[in-house]
Structure formats: structure tokens, C-alpha cells
Inverse folding.
């Protein structure tokens, strides 16, 4: 039986699956790309650029974390099936914790073939000691290849001293192997990672001192979870209500001040209005009303968004919130801004009987003033023949002037009344707009906060239940023998897999 056949031994696969619950068969391992990973400024981009500077044809790119991918964000980077090797970059200036250990476990379970690469060795002279300490935490069984590189040196032209060529040589050597061999190497490596993770978990759980420490830590975690279960709900709801009330009052005040300013400007224009300028005046007023409506609408939306940003800070987005926001946006787009048309028609200045009465009054006034002016001429014998025509001419002129003045005065009065009604109607529409937007925003914002805290309550309840189970298991005891037996089986399986891994590595050299 060849080494590859041994790697696919169903008994060995079943043993790994029974001990860890991990199925190494899901690892493909035949990809030809190299994904580079790092946490917290380890220089992933610089490392990828350095690899391309040394070998432009190197299929090295930044990888993406599966557990860190935000919901709804478009994936970037190679897919898991396309990746044959994963590189985990380590920064000698940073400490190693649970996040890095979880990252190594994720990479080994996804890709199998993982290498540790220590970067920035040109800056930290004690990197060998730091790298040994980091490897002791991340790879206690020393199953992963380890490299030390300087991306800056490679980018500066000193490729031979950077360590990058050694990494690329190892990559090319591994990718040159047949697909079947690389697949089995990856699956064996992933299975070794799963066994090491299970072994560490059992060892930690079986340690009495560690169990006591864990019990205290679990108790503290449970207390903190209970205290934080509903924390901030009342404050957020109060902030939302007071913020929307403040936004409503500010918007109403802005509507009132805008209408007052528009009324003042309209009064100034009406003082010099004539019949020929009515259309221009109406067009100006409609444009001003439209601009005021658009300004109020934008101001209301901005205030609502400001309140929402303040009250929902730290709240994770929920699909229900996204759907609600989309529906609200659709309703808002279907709800137009206040129209610039007015219910009352524009006055024309023509009033029928009143115009006739105005003509009569103007004519009588003109005749009276004409006779008053011409009366001194009647006593002169030679001017008597022109007194009557002159009286009529003066009467007609004065009558026309009086009629024009009174008509203009009446028209201005009607336009002022119409303007007052139009602005009152506009103010009512704008206040209705403000009220409707605020009324629609309040339940939407409060429901988003409520849904978040309901999700938080469910998560905390599940966390508390898990902590209670662990505490009961700690207090119950009696599982030490089972832990030891399982640990022995894991050690035996790990030894077999480690020997198989060595054999698979050597088989490529034999081929």
C-alpha cells in the first residue's frame, strides 16, 4: 500500500472524526494560489508586494478571514478551493493570544498546509527568541514550517538577505507535487490541527488547577453577562425619544421662521406691485415656497439621521432593519414634498359691480375737481367758451388717475390677503410633513433598538446557559478517567498522522 493509500485509510479517517468531529475530507488542498493572512498590522500588503518584487509570477495574494467577513460584504481574494497554501504572518513586536490561536486553527481546518512567517526581522534584533515563544504557543508540536523575512529588504533590492526567496522556493516545491499527493498532505495536516486543538482542550479541562481557575473565570463571565444583558436599552430609548422631540421642535421653529421671512419679503414686494407684475410675483412666491419645502425636507431627514446615528451607535445591523429602512425610503420617495400650488386662485383685480362703482366714483371725483379748477375761468368773458371742454378733459384725467390708484390699491390688498392664505397653507403643509416624518421615524428607530436588545438578550441567555453547563460539569467531576482515555487515543492517532505526514513529505522527494 502506497503512502497516498495509507493517507486515505478509512479507519484513520474515522478515528480522527470520532475524536474531533472534524472531517478532513472537506479540505481540497489542490489549489495553486497562496493566501497570506495576518492580524493587526503584521505587514500583509508589504509581504505580498515583496513576493511579487522577487518573483512577479508568484501567485501570492491577501487572503480573507471567513469569521471576520462582514454580512453582505462582497468577498475579495481567492476562494478556498483555489488556495493550496496559507501563510500566517507574525509580528515580533506583538504578543500572541487567543485570537492568533483561533486564526491558526481556522487556517489549518480550511487549507491544511499552513506556514508561520515572522516579518520585520530587520527592525527587531531579538526576533529568534520571540519567534520561538510565538511558535510554542501557536504550534507546540512543531508541525508547521517556519520562516523569517524582511519585506523592506526585498522591496529595497536586497532580496537574497530578505528571506523571501526561501519562502517562494518552499512554495514552488510544494505546488510542484502531484495533485493527489498535495490533497493528502493538506488533509493530513488539517487532521493534525484538529487533533492538536482537541488535545489542548481536553488537557485544559482535565487540569484541576486550571478547572478551578476556569470556574472562577466562568463565574465572573456569567455575572458580567447577566449585568450586561439589558444594559443601555432605557438610555437608548430615552435618547431616541428626546432626540426626535428636539428635532421636531427645531424643524417646526424653522418652518415658522421660514414662513415669517417669506411673508416679510412678500409684503415688501406687494408695496410696489402693479397689475402687470402679478404673474412675476406669483412665480417668485411659488419658487420661494418650493425652495423652502425642499430645505425643510432635507433638514428634517438630516436631523432624523443624526438622532439615529447617535442612538444606534454600537448596534449591529440586522436584516430586518435593512428591510424596514428600504421600505421607509420607498414610502418617503412616494411621499412628495409640499406642492407649490395653492388652493385659493390668484386674484385678477376684476370685481364686476365694484369696478362699475369705482368708475362712477372716479368720474364724479374727476368732474368735481375739473369744475373746481375751471371755476375761476367762468368769470372771464373771453374764457367762458373753453371752460366746458377744459372741465371735461380735467375730469377725465383725474377720473382715470383715481380709478387706477384705487384699482392698484385694491389689487395689492387682495394679493396681500392671498399671500397670507398661501403662506398659511404652506406652513400647514410643512408642519404636516415634519409631523409625518417624525411619526414614521420614531417607531422605526425604537423597533431597531428593541430588536437589537432582544437579539442581545437571546445571545446572553445562550451564553449563560453554556456557562451554567460548564460550571455544572466542573462541579460534577468524575470525568477525569474519560478525559485521560480520550487523550491517549488522540495522542496515538496524532503519532500515526505525524508519521504519515513525514512519509508524505518524503514521497515527493522520491518521485
Amino acid at each position: 500500500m502506497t503512502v497516498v493509500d495509507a493517507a486515505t485509510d478509512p479507519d484513520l479517517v474515522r478515528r480522527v472524526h470520532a475524536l474531533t468531529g472534524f472531517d478532513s475530507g472537506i479540505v481540497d488542498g489542490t489549489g495553486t494560489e497562496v493566501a497570506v493572512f495576518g492580524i493587526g498590522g503584521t505587514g500583509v500588503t508589504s509581504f505580498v508586494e515583496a513576493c511579487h518584487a522577487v518573483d512577479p509570477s508568484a501567485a501570492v495574494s491577501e487572503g480573507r478571514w471567513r469569521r471576520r467577513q462582514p454580512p453582505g460584504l462582497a468577498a475579495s481574494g481567492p476562494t478556498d478551493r483555489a488556495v493550496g497554501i496559507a501563510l500566517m504572518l507574525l509580528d515580533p513586536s506583538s504578543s500572541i493570544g487567543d485570537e492568533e490561536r483561533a486564526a491558526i486553527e481556522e487556517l489549518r481546518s480550511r487549507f491544511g498546509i499552513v506556514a508561520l512567517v515572522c516579518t520585520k526581522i530587520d527592525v527587531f534584533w531579538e526576533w529568534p527568541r520571540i519567534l520561538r515563544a510565538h511558535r510554542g504557543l501557536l504550534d507546540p508540536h512543531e508541525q508547521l514550517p517556519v520562516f523569517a523575512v524582511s519585506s523592506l529588504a526585498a522591496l529595497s533590492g536586497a532580496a537574497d538577505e530578505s528571506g523571501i526567496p526561501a519562502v517562494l522556493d518552499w512554495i514552488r516545491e510544494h505546488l510542484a507535487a502531484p495533485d493527489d499527493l498535495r490533497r493528502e498532505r493538506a488533509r493530513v495536516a488539517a487532521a493534525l490541527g484538529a487533533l492538536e486543538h482537541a488535545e489542548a482542550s481536553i488537557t485544559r479541562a482535565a487540569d484541576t488547577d486550571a478547572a478551578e481557575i476556569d470556574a472562577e473565570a466562568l463565574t465572573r463571565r456569567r455575572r458580567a453577562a447577566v449585568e450586561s444583558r439589558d444594559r443601555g436599552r432605557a438610555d437608548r430609548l430615552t435618547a431616541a425619544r428626546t432626540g426626535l422631540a428636539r428635532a421636531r421642535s427645531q424643524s417646526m421653529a424653522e418652518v415658522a421662521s421660514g414662513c415669517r421671512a417669506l411673508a416679510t419679503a412678500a409684503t415688501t414686494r406687494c408695496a410696489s406691485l402693479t397689475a402687470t407684475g402679478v404673474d412675476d410675483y406669483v412665480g417668485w412666491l411659488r419658487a420661494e415656497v418650493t425652495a423652502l419645502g425642499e430645505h425643510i425636507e432635507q433638514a428634517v431627514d438630516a436631523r432624523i439621521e443624526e438622532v439615529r446615528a447617535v442612538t444606534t451607535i454600537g448596534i449591529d445591523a440586522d436584516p430586518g432593519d435593512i428591510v424596514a429602512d428600504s421600505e421607509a425610503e420607498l414610502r418617503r420617495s412616494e411621499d412628495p414634498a409640499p406642492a407649490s400650488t395653492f388652493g385659493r386662485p390668484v386674484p385678477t383685480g376684476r370685481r364686476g359691480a365694484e369696478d362699475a362703482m369705482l368708475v362712477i366714483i372716479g368720474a364724479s371725483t374727476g368732474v368735481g375737481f375739473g369744475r373746481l379748477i375751471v371755476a375761476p375761468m367762468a368769470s372771464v368773458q373771453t374764457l367762458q367758451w373753453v371752460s366746458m371742454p377744459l372741465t371735461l378733459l380735467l375730469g377725465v384725467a383725474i377720473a382715470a388717475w383715481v380709478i387706477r390708484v384705487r384699482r392698484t390699491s385694491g389689487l395689492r390688498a387682495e394679493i396681500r390677503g392671498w399671500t397670507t392664505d398661501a403662506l398659511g397653507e404652506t406652513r400647514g403643509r410643512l408642519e404636516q410633513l415634519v409631523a409625518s416624518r417624525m411619526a414614521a421615524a420614531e417607531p422605526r428607530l425604537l423597533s431597531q433598538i428593541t430588536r437589537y436588545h432582544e437579539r442581545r438578550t437571546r445571545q446572553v441567555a445562550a451564553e449563560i446557559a453554556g456557562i451554567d453547563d460548564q460550571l455544572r460539569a466542573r462541579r460534577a467531576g468524575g470525568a477525569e478517567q474519560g478525559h485521560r482515555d480520550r487523550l491517549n487515543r488522540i495522542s496515538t492517532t496524532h503519532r500515526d498522522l505525524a508519521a504519515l505526514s513525514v512519509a508524505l513529505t518524503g514521497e515527493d522527494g522520491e518521485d
Remarks:
- Strands lie at 33-37, 60-62, 83-90, 114-118, 146-148.
- The chain has 15 helices and five strands.
- The CA atoms of residues 30 and 430 lie 65 Å apart.
- The mean pLDDT is 76.
